[in-house]
Structures are given as C-alpha cells and as structure tokens.
Design goal:
about 160 residues; alpha+beta; Nuclear Transport Factor 2, Chain: A; 6 strands
Length: about 160
C-alpha cells in the first residue's frame, strides 16, 4: 500500500505483471474462474494464435466468462476432469514494464483415467494498472484437447473448418 505522511494508507499498489500472471495460472489450475476473469481489464484483447480453429480474440469480460465457463449450467462441460499445476515457470521482463513473456507448462493427471499430461505454453502479456489488457497465449491446444478427452471432436472440427 502507498502511505501518506500521517500514516493513513491510500489505494493498494496494483499487481505487477509477474503477480498477475502467477495469479492467472494458479487460478486456472485451481478453477477459481471468477477470480481469473477479474484479472482482466473491461476492454482487453486475448488471442490464441495457435488455436486449431483460428478462434477470434476475446475482447470483453463477457467473452472471457464464456471462455472459462463462468456461470455455465451444471453439466455443461462434458470433458475429462483435470488435476493440474503450473510448472517450469520462467518469466522474462521486457524493456516495456507492462509486458512480460512467461514460459511454463500445465502438468497433471486426468482424474477419470489417471493418465499424466503436459501442456506447454508461452504467454505474452501486457498488464496495465494491475489488469490484463492484452495477451497472446501460445499453448498446445491439441495436447489440451487430448487430456480433456476431446481430441476426436477437435480434429473433426478442424477437418470441417478447413474443408473446401
């Protein structure tokens, strides 16, 4: 917190890009979806450049809530349950104090099968006043789909998406 001369505190300091990233990946792993969405600015630009279906960028909290399944009815998600944690985290500071590049992996097990999985990722994030205003999330979507038991569906969608 920032203090004024008489000892009263003002507003807490905004989270640093490093702190925001760490809260993001741990929040995802612990499925704290409202908290995760709360890390983003009202107007944001989040894209997944390696998404096999060329998903459009998410630009609002509403789109992020849908992406993370916040408020979805019970039973809406039909994939496997994952128990995961972020590992191998390396955060690179850049010349721009708002931008970091974070390399990491989601590692864990598929609860239903006991199978281990690893999903490598690199996030390039811009954080302004403690909120994510831009993020390019490069991750292995096919490994993620495989862990979730949805690889067949994703491959079928890719074939359909790229059909003449």
């Amino acid at each position: 917190m920032t203090a004024i001369s008489d000892g009263r505190s003002l507003m807490p300091e905004p989270l640093t890009p490093r702190e925001v990233f760490l809260r993001l990946v741990h929040g995802v792993c612990e499925e704290r979806w409202e908290e995760v969405v709360g890390l983003y600015a009202e107007q944001t630009h989040v894209e997944h450049p390696f998404h096999p279906l060329a998903a459009p960028p998410m630009r609002s909290l509403e789109e992020l809530r849908a992406h993370f399944g916040v408020g979805a009815p019970p039973g809406a998600y039909t994939g496997h349950t994952l128990r995961r944690r972020p590992t191998g985290i390396t955060i690179h500071e850049t010349a721009d104090p708002e931008v970091i590049v974070a390399e990491f992996r989601y590692e864990g097990i598929v609860v239903e099968t006991g199978e281990p999985f690893t999903v490598p990722a690199v996030f390039v994030m811009r954080v302004h006043d403690g909120k994510i205003v831009e993020s390019r999330d490069y991750l292995d979507h096919l490994r993620s789909a495989q862990a979730r038991g949805q690889l067949g569906e994703v491959l079928a969608a890719v074939r359909h998406h790229h059909a003449p």
